[in-house]
User: Fold Phage P2 GpU family protein from Collimonas pratensis.
Amino acid sequence: MMMALGMFVFSLPTLAYQELQRKTDWKHPSTSRVGARNARQFTGKGDDTITLSGWIAPELTGSVYSLDALRLMGDTGKSWILIAGTGRILGSYVITGMTEGRTVLAQDGDAGKIEFSITLERTDESVLGLLNTLGDLGSIKNMLSLEGISNTASNAINTGVSTFNNVAGSVGSLF
Assistant:
């Protein structure tokens, strides 16, 4: 295990990142002064951003479903506990962005290599408070399981096929 974000575990079988960048800001607004440098005042902590980037080769290592799981987590808008593989608790973070690039494409359009970047922003939510809200682990675990993701994908495909059949039937009845 490299790191865990909520119930999602970054690892070789799921999504192993090759680079972690962390940027921490502190707020020091300034006030102009005549004949002197601006006066600065420390007003508190600023943003704490972590960017994880890397690539996967689904036939060898990593899973496309892992990217889908992280998108579902981002869709919730919830803050997730971020824990390093060493056990160090980094705080609570929300997923604010994700990019994905697909290359080495096969005839069916499936990618042999997928590059990704995930941006996490720290929130002020209490880690202990988040631990108390994990009572609903069943729905989160189901949402992030491969079976849950494939069920969601199957439902979307079935809905698309049904819609296509309805449209095709309607067009056929016109002739």
